[in-house]
Amino acid sequence: MEPHNLTSVSEFLLLGLSDDPELQLLLFGLFLSMYLVTILGNLLIILAVTSDSHLHSPMYFFLSNLSLTDVSFTTTTIPKMLVNLQTHIKSITYAGCLSQVTFFSLFVCLESLLLTVMAYDRLVAICHPLHYLVIMNPLLCGLFVLVSFSISLLTSLLHYLVMSQLTFCPEVEIPHFFCDLSQLLNLACSDTSTNNILIYFIGTIFGGIPLSGILYSYTQIMSSILRISSLGGRYKAFSTCGSHLVVVCLFYGTGLGVYLSSAASSSPRKGAVASVMYTVVTPMLNPFIYSLRNKDIKSALWRIISRIA
To answer: Are 178 and 81 in contact (CB under 8 A)?
Structure first.
């Protein structure tokens, strides 16, 4: 069977999570609900931060950017999945698959970098409270977001180039609910050794360095908190970064869980089910994690609701 260039492939088939028609209807309702909750929750966070002057601080500026990233992240994959479930059509065009790979890598990398920047923000707030507003000035905060986006864009372009060089055999069935780059590499007929090395290199650099930065920040934060004499002071200091720490554990924990489950399981479908955690569940939970334990966010949201009512 002769391989042919990717540009001659008109479409791919996304096999999704299940072939059972009854289960597909249940999945449609479930994922539609989760998607709407994700969009609503994150947009409320953005609205609260932008409309309330009390929240015009570096921490909430980064939080609003994280919420915008979560909205974009889920929108990259879930709407197409919902359309496929509703219409029972599993195809996705070449352009659509290429777009999913590009934007998915963009927003995953951006989320990782924003979590790193937010960890540094908490480091400055707890370890250097008197100089916090001087260090975390608006210019530096904007520069952090701009650099994070630029690095993420570079990463997504590298992934785009990797995919554009692949050649495929006629069988282009992807055992996933979106175009996952690792699955596409497995389906390629051409030699992918160079592509795999590049992907692992990119993953190590843009995954390992941010995680190392977060671990360093929290090492310094814990060291500073332990030097506080009063128990109440320790709790107050730790509570300012508790929500961020939960989000970090959820993001990296689910990502690592997907990687380990894919490596341990011979069934690609099981890996697809596991990836639901970080592609759908994590972006949905982030607004709740930040709002439920944050009095400022809750107050801002109640003011918005009261004005609407």
So the answer is: yes
Q: Looking at residue 4, what is its pLDDT? A: 43
Residue 149, burial from CB neighbour count under 10 angstroms (0-12, 13-18, 19+): middle
Calculated CA dihedral for residues 167, 168, 172, 175, nearest 10 degrees = -70
- End-to-end, the C-alpha distance of the chain in Å comes to 65
Beta-strand relationship, 11-14 and 91-93: antiparallel
**Could you read off the pLDDT of 249-305 as tens digits, one per residue?**
888 888 777 776 665 555 666 667 778 888 888 899 988 888 877 788 888 888 877
Angle between helices 138-164 and 58-87 (to 10 degrees): 30
Residue in 228, 221, 227, 244 with CA at minimum distance from that of residue 294: 244
Residues 6+ apart with CB under 8 A from 8: none
Question: What is the per-residue pLDDT for 3?
Answer: 44
Angstrom distance (rounded) from CA 84 to CA 264: 28
Summarize pLDDT for 163-213 with one digit per residue, the tens.
Answer: 887 777 666 788 888 888 877 887 777 777 777 787 788 878 877 889 999
**Tokens 């920047």 sit on residue:** 117
Amino acid letter, residue 69: T
| Confidence (pTM) | 0.89
CB 205: neighbour CB atoms within 10 A? Answer: 12
* Helix, strand, coil percentages in the chain from 3-state DSSP, rounded to 5: 80, 5, 15
How is residue 91 annotated by DSSP? E
Cα–Cα distance for residue pair 75/88, rounded to 1 Å: 20
181 touches 162 (CB < 8 A):
yes
Strand spans (E) along the chain: 4-5, 11-14, 91-93, 167-168, 173-174
CB 21 within 8 A of CB 182: no
Distance CA 227, CA 131 (A): 19
